[in-house]
Design goal:
Elements lengths: L1 H17 L2 E7 L4 E4 L1 H6 L11 H5 L4 H15 L6 E8 L5 E13 L5 E10 L1 H50 L6 H32 L8 E4 H18 L3 E3 L8 E4 L1 H17 L6 E9 L2 E8 L6 H4 L22 H11 L3 E7 L3 E9 L7
Parallel strand pairs: 7-9
Antiparallel strand pairs: 1-2, 1-5, 3-4, 4-5, 6-8, 9-10, 10-12, 11-12
């Protein structure tokens, strides 16, 4: 019988080793815990280091994981949960950490139903966790590669449009040099200049987004008067609106309203919002700018009468370089203006929201903190 027990113990030990599996036996009253020798050996602890104090083994749990593990154990011992199961990192003898899954149950109680003995298992999850981390890293790398390829495809398409205009009108000027009248030449030069500024604007947006993602873009918060800023933006957008016969209805009652923002960045955001409202509007449509003050917050909304955004497209609204199916249309852009605007607004302590009805237009609302003298 002793031989059979010895053989059985050997088989049990081999099974524990091959399965990266350990057994523990907890005495919660005397705060002692016994671990199977095979498990200790897997962690690199020899017989000279076979401590059974719970304080010693808890000291080997990763500091970030210790309290959550103890909370789950205590909840089970006190009867507040029906089972005990916890994942945590356990320090090996060489200082490295192994991911383990610990499960256990109470097997002995006293007359007052207090737990006297608890037996459980430990499963080594390290290989599984590392494989999962490699898979996540691979998926991220593949997603980054796809995003890069898509970005290059979209950028090449969008940049070619104004560049073709620059080259085309430059060729016309060259071919008709000395033969075309001054008015015709001026029109060609105007087209070249407009395409050049458009090209520069798109490149600037991409560079700004790159600075955002790298954490290099900063804002300087100061009191900003809304009225003159909006007047300047509307004046700058007036030629673009006239080409589409879009009426801009400026905000009323903005005199004396002051917000806390970065003046240059706020103007950049408002320019993006008004430009989009004109760009995605219908010919002969309108853009309405409204303002509201409430509980120390200032809300500026820009509403258009354009094509709107579908519910499905709204889910992808703030994805960089995603133009929501408009990349093959005559409408220019690279799909970063709204993404950049929201980041800038949030950096200034505000919020940017979009509401839209497909076929009926969109409203973009910018909310910022009002300065103490916002309603002088």
């Amino acid at each position: 019988m002793r031989n059979e027990l010895k053989i059985l113990e050997q088989r049990w030990g081999l099974a524990l080793q091959s399965a990266a599996f350990g057994v523990w036996d907890l005495d919660p009253v005397n705060e002692r815990v016994l671990y199977s020798p095979e498990w200790k050996a897997m962690l690199g602890y020899g017989r000279a280091d076979e401590h059974d104090s719970t304080a010693v083994w808890r000291g080997r749990v990763h500091p970030d994981d210790l309290q959550p593990m103890l909370d789950k154990l205590l909840a089970y011992l006190e009867g507040r949960t029906a089972s005990y199961e916890a994942e945590f990192r356990l320090r090996a003898a060489d200082g490295s950490y192994r991911y383990v899954l610990s499960r256990g149950r109470i097997v002995k109680r006293d007359e007052q139903d207090r737990p006297l003995r608890m037996i459980g298992t430990l499963t080594d999850l390290t290989d599984r966790r590392e494989a999962e981390a490699l898979r996540v890293a691979r998926d991220r790398a593949e997603a980054a590669h796809r995003a890069k390829a898509e970005f290059l495809s979209r950028m090449s398409h969008e940049l070619r449009t104004p560049l073709n205009a620059v080259l085309g009108f430059a060729q016309l000027l060259s071919q008709r040099l000395g033969r075309a009248d001054a008015e015709e030449q001026q029109r060609h030069i105007d087209h070249i200049e407009e395409a050049g500024w458009h090209l520069l604007s798109m490149i600037d947006d991409v560079l700004e987004l790159s600075r955002v993602e790298s954490g290099e873009l900063e804002v300087d918060i100061a009191p900003v008067a809304i009225a003159p800023l909006l007047d300047a933006v509307c004046a700058a957008m007036a030629p673009k609106a006239q080409r589409r016969a879009v009426t801009i209805r400026p905000v009323a009652g903005s005199a004396g309203v002051v917000v806390l923002a970065d003046p240059a960045r706020l103007r950049q955001v408002m320019t993006h919002l008004l430009s989009n409202a004109i760009k995605y509007n219908r010919d002969g449509g309108s853009v309405t700018i409204a303002l509201a003050l409430d509980a120390g917050r200032c809300r500026v909304s820009v509403s258009d009468t354009g094509i709107g955004i579908s519910a499905e497209q709204m889910q992808h609204l703030f994805e960089p370089f995603n133009r929501l199916g408009r990349a093959n249309t005559q409408t220019d852009g690279v799909g970063v203006g709204l993404v950049l605007s929201r980041w800038l607004v949030e950096k200034m302590g505000g919020e940017l929201r979009v509401q839209s009805i497909e076929g009926a237009g969109s409203t973009v609302t910018l909310e910022l903190a009002a300065a103490p003298d916002a309603a002088r």
